[in-house]
Amino acid sequence: MVEYVSINGAQLAYRLIGPADAPLIITLHGGRGFGDHKSDFKACSPLSSLYRVLSFDFRGHGQSSRTEPFTFHQLVEDIEGLRRHFLGADQPCIICGGSFGGFLAQQYAITYPAHVSHLILRGTAPSHHHEETAIRTLEQRTSRAPGLSITFLKDKIFGRFESDLEFRLVMYAAAPLYSENFDPELGLKQNIDTVFYAKSHNDLYSQQEKFFDYRDRLQLITARTLVIVGERDWICPPEQSKDIASRIPGAHLEIIENANHSVHLEKNAEVIELIKRHLL
Hints:
Layout: E1 3-7, E2 10-17, E3 24-28, H1 38-44, E4 52-56, H2 72-87, E5 93-98, H3 100-111, E6 116-122, H4 130-140, H5 150-157, H6 164-174, H7 184-193, H8 198-204, E7 224-230, H9 238-247, E8 252-256, H10 263-266, H11 268-279
Parallel strand pairs: 3-4, 3-5, 5-6, 6-7, 7-8
Antiparallel strand pairs: 1-2, 2-4
């Protein structure tokens, strides 16, 4: 059941399972303006026999309040607020972030290195330059998503939507790209069930936010780091994860065959086993 907690003036929707005295994993979802906690909570729930799993919707996403501002900095401070709320001042947590959540996970681990014991990054990138590789990948896979154009990707998904409806329709057109085994009926249901909020998307892709680049600061991360990516990831291709792993001291990279951006769902058992070994 979804619960709510007040963090930095926002009401954040979350779910928490696992033993009360177990180490805390905080999952960070992808999808600027349309992501929520559900897929990460489903993917990480098998860890709940050994760990507390906390999955939440960022402000301006899912069932959380639409309390501005929508900035990378504010979302990172919300993560810190959640850690303090559930663990207290000094106890570190485990951070597991995918896609956009992986951007935030990197920024959090750079900003608060002592507050992260383990870092798990899934299908993400160290800078906005992943957009260039995603465009090249789409050029090779246009047949997978005939309703999505390069212009839509550059100007809408990586830019600005004029309305929540336009946002919903473009992301439905893009949906087949995210999984190697796309189910159109399930894709339609998921699109209908998803909250699309153009304002938070647009703010998080504003000129002040979109040009993030952590590459020169990744060496500041002290957490034990696991980087996971699907070999067919289209929006954050494997070379992005390779770059991350090469810059974080001691990071371990796993490229999962026959998996796409939704590797945590497509290859869940394999991913969970990798995480369990990483956390030992």
